């Protein structure tokens, strides 16, 4: 009897905690949603349950000639896909070399990758700005792409290298005996096996441009080249409360697709990260 | 080599003098060119040294009776032996230009007198040795700013990250309890904060916690007659930022932990049951070691990530509220302080000097990571 009671108490406690967490998690998210559906432009007049639901802000983003939202979406998609594709290729090459070959500087290479992965790109902002200025890539999406690839490289290479290390060497050795060349081993044996971690790298690099506003802020100047995050940030940066409802609408339109992709792939992400990270 | 000579010459001259004629010589450009020359020369020297070693080896091989390889064979050997280098090369180039070079540039700036009042092209920069560091440690304004920012950065990193991990661990263990139903649904919802882009959520929190018209003060606390200065009081701002970071950061750790918990074999617990182990003992000796062992490197990365977590500090209230007699705001951590000094005050020399201090801290983190990471203990594969 006592035990049964205790059991039930515990279970109630767990569910209570879970419930509280649900509220804490969903409150800000629901709040944003309802703000974005408020007709006014300021936070003052909006309330959690709007008296009048309206989609004016969403319509404005898409149809108003003053709105660059679709352009920003296009820019971000461009930056994201190029960064993601290029990163996967470069990173997998580097990781393959580090994981499978012994060459001069290999060990120091790994050390420096580990070290560099800790430094945020942010620390070199002044230099990045000047460097891009010198080569004429300031205020250009390509400049942004290059910085993203370079900045993420050490971390990604490290993850992929860790994952490749877990794939038995016998596989490529037997392929080598059968006469397969370097590239053949790489593309036909290792790449298919490393798909989970490559997917993780691709996804992370794809999402980074959607979430980052700082680098675009340093590099991009003209509004028609903005990425989504920077554009949205400017909605509320100038006059804080004024465009908050519009910001919410724009934010929801970014957050929903990203969240959906994330939730679908989370299992994949976690196993990939855990294996690449711990064994690396 | 000869074609490069001019560039290198200017480069070295530039890095040494940083220019002599104001308005004509732009010290920054000279510094860029100079650093690139240094990088180039280092590589040429390494390459040259490698060539010498290679030639020497070839000579030894010849002496010991090897046939000189034919043209075709040596081409093949170049492809075969050089393969890993070709693979690393593109990544290496990008890395040097995007990461290594900017870091070197930043380090150099710390030893110049580059700030708003002394900035190219109107003026020339000079090397000033360790002057900036002396200023940082001796002038009261800088010293008090540095101390308060540094201590808050450390507190922030440890408290926020540890809290994140503890909350995640508690929730993961609870949800993993065999009696709990709807596990998948609960997990999905718990992961939501991770799935929503963080700059969006931080800005939303910033609006919600706004002192005057934020939802927290206006809707949640108003009925109780309490108004809390979330943003204008340094202590409350710190507490708020830590809470927000826990909200943002626990899902990732939670997801990691859940994955590990599910993979712990039930045999362990059954064996413990047979031995009459209490629940705490089971947690302490089975669950905890498993979880921590499997995730340690990623957890360390979480600490490093929060140390450099610029987004939350800057987006919440730009490192504010301002503090008197300091150049940094109440919630500024090192990285956001550097950003402010660079882009708002244009005080490049101090920003660079502080970056170097940050770099040292980061290096300590890195060292910790090295000694733990297993790939270095398993380096004997070849």
From TrEMBL, chain A:
<dbReference type="GO" id="GO:0042956">
    <property type="term" value="P:maltodextrin transmembrane transport"/>
</dbReference>
<dbReference type="GO" id="GO:0015423">
    <property type="term" value="F:ABC-type maltose transporter activity"/>
</dbReference>
<feature type="transmembrane region" description="Helical">
    <location>
        <begin position="110"/>
        <end position="135"/>
    </location>
</feature>
<protein>
    <submittedName>
        <fullName>Sugar ABC transporter permease</fullName>
    </submittedName>
</protein>
<comment type="similarity">
    <text>Belongs to the binding-protein-dependent transport system permease family.</text>
</comment>
<keyword id="KW-0813">Transport</keyword>
<dbReference type="InterPro" id="IPR035906">
    <property type="entry name" value="MetI-like_sf"/>
</dbReference>
<keyword id="KW-1133">Transmembrane helix</keyword>
<dbReference type="InterPro" id="IPR050901">
    <property type="entry name" value="BP-dep_ABC_trans_perm"/>
</dbReference>
<keyword id="KW-1003">Cell membrane</keyword>
<feature type="transmembrane region" description="Helical">
    <location>
        <begin position="141"/>
        <end position="164"/>
    </location>
</feature>
<keyword id="KW-0472">Membrane</keyword>
<dbReference type="InterPro" id="IPR000515">
    <property type="entry name" value="MetI-like"/>
</dbReference>
<feature type="transmembrane region" description="Helical">
    <location>
        <begin position="247"/>
        <end position="265"/>
    </location>
</feature>
<feature type="transmembrane region" description="Helical">
    <location>
        <begin position="185"/>
        <end position="207"/>
    </location>
</feature>
<feature type="transmembrane region" description="Helical">
    <location>
        <begin position="77"/>
        <end position="98"/>
    </location>
</feature>
<feature type="domain" description="ABC transmembrane type-1">
    <location>
        <begin position="73"/>
        <end position="265"/>
    </location>
</feature>
<keyword id="KW-0812">Transmembrane</keyword>
<dbReference type="GO" id="GO:0005886">
    <property type="term" value="C:plasma membrane"/>
</dbReference>
<keyword id="KW-0762">Sugar transport</keyword>
<dbReference type="Pfam" id="PF00528">
    <property type="entry name" value="BPD_transp_1"/>
</dbReference>
<feature type="transmembrane region" description="Helical">
    <location>
        <begin position="12"/>
        <end position="33"/>
    </location>
</feature>
